[in-house]
Amino acid sequence: MLSHNSRPFNVLLILISIVLLFATFILTIVGTAGSTSNYNPINRIYLGDADISHINVTKVLPQFDSTLKILGTNMLNQSNTVESIFHSISGIASNESSLAALLQILSTTENTDATVDSMLDLSKLLLDDSSSQMATAMLAQINQLFDASSNDTMTLLSLETLIGLELQNNSNSNVTAMTLNLLNGSSNPLDSVKNLETLNDLSTDDKENLVPVFELFQNTNNATGLMASLATVMSNGESISGSRATLLLTALQSQLASGANVSSVISSLSGLITSDERPVVNAIADILEYSTDTNTTLSILEELVSNNVTSSEYARTALTSLASIVADSSNTTNALMTVSELSNASISNSTLTTMQLASLTSLLESSNDEGTTISVLSNLQNAMTSSSTIVESVPSLFTLLSSSSDPMGTYRALVVIVGWAHDNPSEFQSTLTLLENYKNAPNKVTSEQLIEMSPDLLEFLNVATSYRIAIFNLCKANANNEILSCSKPHAVQNLDIRAIIYESLEDSDFKPFMDALDIQADDLHLEGKLLHREHEYVSAVRAILALNLLTIIFSFFLIVVLIILLFKFRIIGIISVVMAFCVALFSILSGIITAVIAEVIKSGTYEDNYGVVYKSGQNYMGLIWSGFAFAFISFFLIVWYVVRYRKMLKAEREEQEKGNYYNDVVDDVSSTELDANAAMDTSDTISSVERQKNSAAITTTNGNSNEKMNSESNYVISDSSGEDQVPNGNIV
After folding, report:
1. Which of 152, 400, 447, 704 has the most crowded Cβ, counting Cβ within 10 A?
2. How far is CA 684 from CA 81, 113, 671, in A?
3. Do the Cβ atoms of 707 and 714 come closer than 8 Å?
4. Exposure of 263 by Cβ count < 10 A (0-12 exposed, 13-18 middle, 19+ buried)?
5. d(Cα 398, Cα 379) in Å, to the nearest integer?
6. What is 539-589 written as a DSSP string?
7. Residue 704 dihedral angles phi and psi, to the nearest 5°
8. Composition bias, kind Polar residues: at what positions (predicted)?
9. Helix, strand, or coil (residue 10)
10. Cβ partners under 8 Å of residue 424, min gap 6
């Protein structure tokens, strides 16, 4: 048995170990179950806290980059509060369609300054009643153009080029009107404009050589017949030489001057004409028959022959295109006049006319309804010529569209804003004030300044800025660390930054702005190291949960084992040590993994530069590391107890062994003494007997001597055994 004095100290060691293990047991349970309920102080226990109060909104939501620049610049330079700024846009924000339209324009702009300038210029048009109606009508016309388009982008670019060219050269406006009038009366506008392009592609010299052709049409009463006759002349021009043609025309002119008619003159010359030349001569006769001024017509024909126009390839091509235009046109005279005007314009400025026709071709090629396209273009041209205000605003319109990554979306948004502004001029003016402040601001807000403004902005919009992540749930808190809500506890809380931020924005006053642009979770621009390692977080938390549970289980059973030791003071030995070691090991591993998770998240958020700041939950870490400290101390105490117990047991065993050895020695000594005494007694007995025998022997010897000495008179008596017997009588 152990010493009576050592037992109280051993009991004390066990009691201290039980208390420490119980503390580990409770602390681990509290840390594991932290934040499962939304009440103090349990909701202050969590693995970590993600703070987004200084989030880089323009990086996460680039759709709001321009919007935040405008708002931030107003806050920076006008000393406006968040409340006053949002009050200024409350009017447009109250209307979902108008808010969506404004955000659409700002979210797709690639040049915020140019977009703001364009909107301010267009606002002058919108705030004027008469101009506003015309602008609305013009935008409606353009909208019809897009409705009829199969390629909005091509339509927009072509329209921008066409109107821009007209604004650059007002002298060309009449040509534009005539061209559109020609196309409007054409049964095949696209074919007609392509034929116009063919005519325009001729060189300047060729165009000048063809000018007399258009003069022929001015002196004819049968344009169609003239066209056919010219085609015959040019298709057979090589069959008659230039000199022969000149001679023929000179003869015709001289005879006609004498009063002869064309038919008689041709008949008189028939003997001089070959069969190959006859189609050309007959065609010339028809031209003269259709002419209202024969002499002028002959002079023009002579000029054409002298310039070799009738035998040139370019002339044939041009005449073919002209014939096609006339054939498609419902008004031949108008068609010929338009072609003539276009030819003269292209001679003076071929580049401008070429670009104009190319734009018209693109518009018609991208149209599903050529008639509607031509009609809309004609109406737009008339509107621009009738209003100088619209003319001045049109460049701003196309600047706005060219600054957008989605021109069509911007245009349709502008149509919505125009309609809303016409009905709500005062609310629109409040919005314009913010744009004017931005334009006139001496300093534009920087990204760093926007990040500093984020807490006030998020607080005003009631966006949760703190996310407390526990093992089983997630709690959201505001800037004042007030818990707003907690998710329902479930198996293991995931660290899905994208879902966390998106749900918080959806649950805040920022939702209308998100809905206006139809922003979903996948639209958040969250890419980087942290998101690529998100899948590791759940596994790590599961490991933490498993280790915490093992700590709880092992500490509980170890407490039971130690309690048993109090009542049954026996050493369980290695089992207690192993269990105590496991409790300490599991608790420290839990703390280490938690710390590693925190460092991974911190490094990820820092490198990704989203403005998300992650901090470890101090209360949770305090509980877990305190639990480990208590478990480690209890492990040390149990090891001490076991070692101490074994040493004492060994000492007692050695003492007992020494006692047993002493008893054995004493017993051996006693046995030896007894044996010695017995031996001495036996020796004495033997000595006595021997003495008696010796005495008897001596007596016998003496007797025999006496008998021998007295042999004459004495005799020896023998018994029946043959032994000698002492005689009865004393030996004298």
Report:
1. 400
2. 132, 142, 20
3. yes
4. exposed
5. 18
6. HHHHHHHHHHHHHHHHHHHHHHHHHHHHHS----THHHHHHHHHHHHHHHH
7. -60, -40
8. 681-720
9. helix
10. 91, 92, 95
Provide the 3-class DSSP secondary structure of residue 50.
strand
**What are the Cα distances from residue 438, in Å, to 72, 91, 114, 377, 396?**
9, 19, 12, 36, 18
Query: Can you spell out the DSSP letters for 126-148?
Result: HHSHHHHHHHHHHHHHHHHHHHT
Integer Cα distance of 242 and 307 in angstroms: 9
Residue 385 confidence class, pLDDT cut points 50, 70, 90? confident
**Peptide linkage before 41 cis (omega within 30 of 0):** yes
Would you give the DSSP letter of residue 522? G
Is the distance from CB of 136 to CB of 422 less than 8 angstroms?
A: yes
Alpha helices in 293-387 (DSSP H): 294-306, 313-328, 332-348, 350-365, 370-386
* Helix spans in 424-507 (H): 425-440, 447-460, 497-506
17, 562 contact by CB (below 8 A): yes
Nearest to 43 by CA among 700, 617, 566, 669: 617
For residues 657 and 663, give the distance between their C-alpha atoms in angstroms, rounded to a whole number: 10
What 3-state DSSP class applies to 442? coil
| pLDDT range class, residue 35, cuts 50, 70, 90 | low
Chain mean pLDDT for the chain: 79
- Give the C-alpha separation, 149 to 369, whole Å: 8
CB 610 within 8 A of CB 60: yes
What is the Cβ-side half-sphere exposure of residue 298, based on CA atoms within 13 angstroms?
A: 20
What are 179's two structure tokens? 């061209």
d(CA 217, CA 228): 12
Determine contact, residues 49/467, Cβ cutoff 8 Å.
yes
For the cut 80, the answer to whether the pLDDT of residue 696 exceeds it is no
Q: Which amino acid makes up residue 490?
A: H
Cα–Cα distance, 24 to 583 (Å, whole number):
9
- Give pLDDT tens digits for 391-400: 777 888 888 9
The position carrying tokens 């409790």 is: 583
Is residue 30 within 8 Å of residue 641, measured between CB atoms?
A: no
First and final CA of the chain: distance in angstroms?
80
**pLDDT tens sequence across 514-556:** 998 889 988 888 776 767 777 778 788 889 889 999 999 999 9
- The alpha carbon of residue 76 and the mean position of all alpha carbons in its chain are separated, in whole angstroms, by 29
- By DSSP bridging, strand 613-616 and strand 483-486 are unpaired
Q: What is the DSSP string of 165-197?
A: HHHH-GGGHHHHHHHHHHHHTBS-HHHHHHHHH
Q: Where are the alpha helices (DSSP H) in 461-533?
A: 497-506, 511-516, 529-532
Cβ–Cβ < 8 Å for 147, 351: no
436, exposed or middle or buried, with CB in 10 Å at 0-12, 13-18, 19+?
middle
Measured over the CA atoms of residue 176, residue 178, residue 180 and residue 183, the dihedral's sign is: negative
Residues 296, 256: contact at Cβ < 8 Å?
A: no
259 pLDDT band (50/70/90 cuts)?
Answer: low
Q: Are 380 and 398 in contact (CB under 8 A)?
A: no
CA dihedral (264, 269, 275, 281) positive or negative: negative
User: What are 528's two structure tokens?
Assistant: 């980087």
Query: Rounded to an integer, what distance in angstroms lies between the CA atom of residue 556 and that of residue 583?
Result: 10
Residue spans per domain, the chain: 173-314
Q: Is 51 helix (H, G, I), strand (E, B) or coil?
A: strand
Interatomic CA distance for residues 468 and 462, integer angstroms: 17
Q: Which two tokens stand for residue 245?
A: 């043609």
CB contact set of 224 (below 8 Å; sequence gap of 6+):
326, 332
The CA-atom distances, in angstroms, between 44 and each of 71, 138, 486, 499, 618 are 35, 62, 12, 22, 9
Q: Has residue 686 got a pLDDT over 70?
A: no
- This prediction's pTM: 0.69
The type of residue at 566 is: L
Distance (Å, whole) CA 629 – CA 694:
95
